[in-house]
């Protein structure tokens, strides 16, 4: 068990459970806190990912309930998205600032290698899996209005959820491979006769969660042989010359940037 110790960005959502599974060292962190205490916009994501980074985590598999924006993505199906549309407002989404500037590449927000392995694991467990598609991340906590749902459909989005941002951004800055298993709980509210309710979401989530657990268990043994394709995400991304970075910033972001500060990044 990893104590819920303070980071430069506050405390993580909860203690991080650490264990070994078939020779793979792994960590589990409930993003909403045990008992689901944090709203999506309240999750201390920077603290969460900073803590995971200090533990040496290289791969992050995120599990997220979502609403479907297309007919073919039915409730209880699984989606491994490859793109994000960010419609959040005001969530801290970077470790940088305070004297150090970095601009990471984010054209492909999900790790292709980890996403492929995740989809294969879910399919092997009997899940109905859809690879690719755009996850639109909204602020919440309310579900979409009908107008918002239709707008997201018009923009070509596949699913709607509330957690991929800033997770994917922070994972990239921390040079972790990040992939998501999006679990379809409903048709959002665009489909006639398919109004979203908390009861419907929770029941479908319960079923999807069972499949997600089996998927992660199948995936974990493969991680030792998988390449972290985000391992050098900060190479060339730090714009501030090391001589001008305040000592406080170097200390604050040490676990993330230290290997780049001995030279012009």
Supply database-style keywords:
265 residues, alpha/beta, Rossmann fold, two-stranded antiparallel ribbon, 7 helices, 18% strand
Structure described in brief:
With 265 residues, the protein is an alpha/beta fold. It has 7 helices and 9 strands, in the order ββαβββαββαβαβααα. The relative contact order is 0.20.
Structure description:
By secondary structure, the protein is an alpha/beta fold. The chain has a single domain, classed as Nucleoside phosphorylase domain (Rossmann fold, 3-Layer(aba) Sandwich), CATH 3.40.50.1580. Helices cover 28% and strands 18% of the residues. It has 7 helices and 9 strands, in the order E-E-H-E-E-E-H-E-E-H-E-H-E-H-H-H. The chain has helices at 45-54, 112-124, 146-154, 164-173, 198-219, 247-252, 254-257; strands spanning 17-21, 24-28, 59-68, 78-80, 83-87, 129-131, 134-138, 159-161, 177-186. The strands form 2 sheets. Strands 5-7-8-3-9-4-6 form a 7-stranded mixed beta sheet. The protein has a two-stranded antiparallel ribbon with strand order 1-2. The longest helix is centred in the C-terminal third of the chain and has 22 residues, at 198-219. The chain is globular and about 60 Å long.
